[in-house]
């Protein structure tokens, strides 16, 4: 019911992403603006179970909008998967008289929030924070834009050395089971091929396409491989296959790894985080619960957590076509 919330808590959970700090800042300052007390919970659900939280005021979040990572730390909690763990977390929130929770994280974190609400009726609101952009109900998750810029910067650098040595590079990017990072960064970095889980190119067509590029006068090539792509068993086997079935290229592999999750958030992610934090707090204060805030058609919208968890994000088919045409 509107008007009943006096104390909110915020936590970050799952893999961190650039923009999480900006979202924490936004939640804390929105609370301060509306005269609501705000508590920061450390290490995600682990901190909720251990009662590891402290009061944050508007000044506690100064100087963090430009920082990567999360000042509240993050964890993938095993304890919160158990009924006992969630019961303890609920008791800690009751003891502190906290009456609403903002969860910044991905679908695993939202699943925990939903179960928690179903068991105890505790008001929860999700903010999608992951570089993978794999959450239904928002065109952009927090950190996706920054990660793309990081990956494009890396591809640009790899291209310098690839062209100096006439080499073919396979570059693995993150994204778990989806290819949003690979597809977008691949186009922006001018990759010759982009391998994503949503489209099965097949090994023969890959080799055919790389041979075509070579014949068209390209002396070096970059293939972006989403970590979830299954064309080769892994990127090193993919390299071995191409090495054995293609002549004329010196082939190398570069796995970008966790550097994609770090760094100062982009302007886009800072603005998105600020908007999401305001929307999350105001929605809870308006009596909404079990939703995720998201960016849809340039507006902040609410999507039921259940849909955000179960819904599938779709790959942009137009981007796939653009990528094909650009690799001509
Ligand atoms: O979900 C974010 C993400 O960085 C994925 O892209 C990646 O597959 C995974 O987390 C890596 O997780 P961890 O930090 O546990 O190695």
Set out the fold topology:
Layout: E1 7-12, H1 20-33, E2 37-41, H2 45-50, E3 53-56, H3 83-95, E4 101-105, H4 107-120, E5 124-128, H5 144-164, E6 167-173, H6 180-188, E7 193-195, H7 203-215, E8 221-226, H8 235-245, E9 250-255, H9 267-285, E10 291-296, E11 299-304, H10 305-310, H11 317-326
Parallel strand pairs: 1-2, 1-4, 4-5, 5-10, 6-8, 6-9, 7-8
Antiparallel strand pairs: 2-3, 10-11
Helix pairs in contact: 1-9, 5-6, 6-11
Bound molecules: 6-O-phosphono-beta-D-fructofuranose (F6P).
- The share of residues in extended strands comes to 15-25%
Shape: elongated
Helix content: 40-55%
Q: What's the alpha carbon Rg, rounded to whole Å?
A: 22 Å
Low-confidence stretches: none
- Count of DSSP-assigned helices: 11
Explain this structure to me?
This protein is α/β, with parallel strands linked by helices. The chain folds into two domains: 183 residues, Rossmann fold (3-Layer(aba) Sandwich); 117 residues, Phosphofructokinase domain (Rossmann fold), CATH 3.40.50. Helices cover 41% and strands 18% of the residues. It is built from eleven helices and eleven strands. Strands 3-2-1-4-5-10-11 form a seven-stranded mixed sheet, with helices on both faces. α1 links the parallel β1 and β2. The longest helix is centred in the middle third of the chain and has 21 residues. The radius of gyration is 22 Å and the shape is elongated. The chain starts with 6 loop residues before the first strand and ends with a helix. The site of 6-O-phosphono-beta-D-fructofuranose has 10 residues, from loops. The site of 6-O-phosphono-beta-D-fructofuranose (F6P) has 10 residues, from loops.
């Amino acid at each position: 019911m509107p008007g009943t919330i006096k104390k909110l808590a915020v936590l970050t959970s799952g893999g961190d992403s650039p923009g999480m700090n900006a979202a924490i800042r936004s939640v804390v300052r929105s609370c301060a603006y509306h005269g609501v007390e705000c508590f920061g919970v450390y290490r995600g659900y682990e901190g909720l179970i251990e009662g590891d939280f402290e009061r944050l005021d508007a000044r506690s979040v100064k100087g963090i909008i430009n920082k990567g990572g999360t000042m509240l730390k993050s964890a993938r909690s095993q304890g919160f998967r158990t009924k006992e763990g969630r019961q303890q977390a609920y008791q800690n929130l009751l003891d502190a008289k906290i009456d609403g929770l903002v969860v910044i994280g991905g679908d695993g974190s939202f699943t925990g929030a939903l179960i928690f609400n179903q068991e105890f009726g505790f008001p929860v609101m999700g903010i999608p924070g992951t570089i993978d952009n794999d959450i239904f109900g928002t065109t952009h998750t927090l950190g996706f834009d920054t990660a793309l810029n990081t990956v494009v910067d890396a591809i640009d650098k790899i291209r310098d050395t690839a062209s100096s040595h006439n080499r073919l590079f396979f570059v693995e990017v993150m994204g778990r089971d989806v290819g949003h990072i690979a597809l977008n960064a691949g186009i922006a970095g001018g990759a010759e091929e982009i391998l994503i889980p949503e489209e099965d190119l097949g090994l023969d067509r890959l080799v055919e396409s790389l041979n075509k590029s070579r014949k068209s006068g390209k002396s070096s090539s970059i293939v972006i491989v989403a970590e979830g792509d299954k064309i080769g068993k892994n990127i090193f086997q993919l390299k071995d296959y191409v090495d054995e079935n293609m002549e004329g290229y010196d082939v190398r592999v570069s796995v970008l790894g966790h550097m994609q999750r770090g760094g100062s958030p982009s302007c886009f992610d800072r603005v998105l985080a600020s908007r999401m934090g305001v929307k999350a707090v105001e929605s809870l204060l308006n009596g909404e619960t079990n939703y995720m805030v998201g960016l849809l058609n340039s507006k902040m919208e609410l999507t039921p957590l259940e849909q955000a968890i179960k819904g599938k994000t779709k790959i942009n088919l137009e981007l796939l076509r653009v990528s094909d045409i650009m690799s001509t």
